[in-house]
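Justification of resources, computational component.

The compute hours requested in this renewal are based largely on the per-chain cost of generating structure records like the one below. Each record pairs the submitted sequence with a full structure-token output. That output is archived, and it is also reused by downstream analysis tasks.
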Amino acid sequence: MLGYFGPAGTFTHQALKTLGKLDARPFSSVTTAMAAAKAGEVEASLVPIENSVEGGVSATLDTLASMGGLQILREVVIPVQFGLYVRPGTTLEGVRQVLTHSHAAAQCRGWLADHLPKDADITESGSTAGAAKEVSQPFSRYDAAICAPIAAEMYHLVAAAENIADNADAHTRFVLVGPRGTLPPRTGDDRTTVVAYMREDHSGALLDILHQFAFRGINLSRIESRPTKDQLGSYSFSIDAVGHVDDERMAAALKGLHRVCRQVVFLGSYPHAVIDGEPVVAQVPTPDSSTDLAYRQAETWFAEVTGRRAPDRIRVD
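The structure output for this chain reads:
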């Protein structure tokens, strides 16, 4: 059984269905969903990690960095479109109180300003599905919920307006998180996620981290700073790098990070998600100097000129 950040009717629930898993358990928070996966209560849990409009999901990034013993097994990316759903008989002109999640409110801000009465209030809640459930109650003080169609259908709401997101191409990325174990095999179209903690605060500290990837020809698809919660101004960096830990350049970069950082949390290497047959991250050609072949040739050359035997597994420290 898989777990997911619930309740039922959320976009996470919708993303879970793309995995073909019908037997799933909802959890009330991202943290409890991942804790259940770590404890073995479920095989793994699906949680949101990034939205193309709002950026990273703080609860997921922080829990992955701090909980320990977890790794990302795979990712799922789905398009996100919202509707304004009401109880039967309520009109758009009659909407004065709207309930939804903060990310949904942010992604529909422009439409709401243009189409709702000027005195309408937007209240942010724990989830879009929870908002739909509340609005479905006959005597709820809320007139409408901004949510996914799956939630509206579940709670028998009707559409006052559909496809109201300001960005029609918005997508949300989810990750399936499980106990640390065997990594998914390299596919040639992979992503590696780490959290890097600066050893000390100094001029160029972030550059030291980025340098480990840049001069090895590794493209970064996401980097976000997150407070370490130790003191004001202390930050870690959550990083998605294109490639697999079995790539020689990625292995070398991770070793380099370990040298320059106080701590590196390795969260796994896993295949990129695919939408309509296309990877969600465009492939950037690997420089000739950073291919596995280039690393092997360099190691062979070094062994020849020094009279040392080339190792079975290339070491690049």
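Residues 292-306 form the longest helix (15 residues). The first strand starts at residue 2 and ends at 5.
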